Hints:
This protein is an alpha/beta fold and 456 residues long. The protein contains 19 helices and 18 strands. The chain has helices at 11-21, 33-42, 59-67, 84-92, 105-136, 146-159, 175-185, 203-211, 228-231, 247-259, 285-290, 296-302, 317-333, 343-351, 357-371, 384-400, 406-424, 429-436, 440-450; strands spanning 3-7, 26-30, 47-51, 75-80, 97-101, 137-138, 141-142, 165-168, 193-197, 212-213, 225-226, 236-240, 261-263, 270-272, 276-281, 305-308, 340-341, 376-377. It has a five-stranded parallel beta sheet with strand order 2-1-3-4-5, with helices on both faces. A five-stranded parallel beta sheet has the order 9-12-15-8-16. α4 links the parallel β4 (75-80) and β5. Bound molecules: adenosine-5'-triphosphate (ATP) and magnesium ion. Adenosine-5'-triphosphate (ATP) is lined by residues 140-143, 169, 171-177, 282, 322, 358-359, 362.
Amino acid sequence: MPRILVVDDEAGVQASLRMLLKNDCEVATAASVDEALRSIAEAPPDLILLDLVMPGRGGLDLLAEISEQPSSPPVVVLTATKTVSSAVEAMKRGAVDYVTKPFEVESLRIKVRQLLERRALEHEVARLRARVEGQERLGDLLGRSEPMQEVFHTLRRVAVARATVLIRGESGTGKELAAHAIHDLSPRRERPFVAVNCAAIPETLIESELFGHERGAFTDAVDRRIGRFEAASGGTLFFDEIGELSSGVQAKLLRALQERRIERVGSTRTIDVDVRVIAATNRDLDREVAERRFREDLYYRINVVPVALPPLRERREDVRLLASHFFERSRAEAGRPGLELASEVIAALERYPWPGNVRELENAIEHAVALCEGDVVRLDDLPQAVVRAGRIEDLRQAVHAGRLGFEQASADFERELLLEALERTGWNQTRTAEQLRVTRRALKLKMDRYGLKPPA
Ligand SMILES: Nc1ncnc2c1ncn2[C@@H]1O[C@H](COP(=O)(O)OP(=O)(O)OP(=O)(O)O)[C@@H](O)[C@H]1O
Ligand SMILES: [Mg+2]
């Protein structure tokens, strides 16, 4: 049942409003501004009926305080006929309506009902919006495609457990974001998230980085130092690019994970560690195991819950969402809030295969925003590779839609292909001819036919 708060110092008014409204809603009362504020804090009402003239602070003060709060309830002012001018003042300050005392019973009832209905609708819209937005993002990961929805579902489920997660995916698919999302949704979110980039730490240092060292453990160990395992205590330890670890370090890591205990380099004392492990790789770990570059036992230890991030070309429905997100961010950072994206740009982005996945898309948008001179980002502001893929795809679609004849489309296609090959070799005709498996003479003839000349 909706809740109404009546704020009036006259007991008679409180009682009659309670009588009038008690069938439609729950009625709370307050005789002063302070009492009203306490009541609002305790149980926020859906509507406030507010007397303006009360001993102590008046109704306008209350109005000022609650209109500061987000999603504050609507306020209807109660006023004696002779003070209608102050009711007008109240409406300027955010009250939605006023009624004059003594009330016209039926009209008050209708007003209240309408306001409560509107309030309920606003709540419903907010709830639906939160649900839709919640579905299209998990932490900083965005995605509305079916494969990403499945990933979100898995990430949500594993976050609450302690199980080790192995995240796979091509470069730029969001593995690092996924690791962060798991941590942020987990009961460990208040504890540290510590990342170890296994590809970036030199082999000679990695052991002391992971496990720490005692003073004098080796030449450069002038001080005692704790490692990443201890730094992540109670939290999450993220092994990025785990496929890059040498076999020696793999063995030590396996021991630490099995025993949940470590020893600092140069010490024999064992230290219990409580960390949740997440690993990521863009290598094909099954093959690494088959070819004996990655320990099978360590593989099983970390691959408890596998999560595979799909390449962007397999979820083109996400391109528009991601592009809009990166575009909004880029134009805000560039201080150009009026900048727009031409619709042909979105179409080209949706067709390009994105070998570098989301990272490549992010870079392409930033590139386009930086280069764009007008108010609208156009196709030519995008990186060459994207533009070209867009043109070839345009041809294909034009033929199938009957807008372009086969002969013309084939000639245009030939021209695009030649141009692309020439650009790739820096207009080196010998190399281009080799690559296209035609003679230099044939290449020259075609270049002349299409009027292709090296840029001046
Ligand atoms: N689903 C996504 N939603 C929003 N941004 C994303 C998404 N996926 C990736 N990104 C962005 O793309 C970039 C690459 O993401 P991330 O570093 O997580 O990828 P990765 O898989 O770890 O790549 P690599 O294998 O090269 O390390 C980041 O800037 C990240 O913010
Ligand atoms: Mg990464």
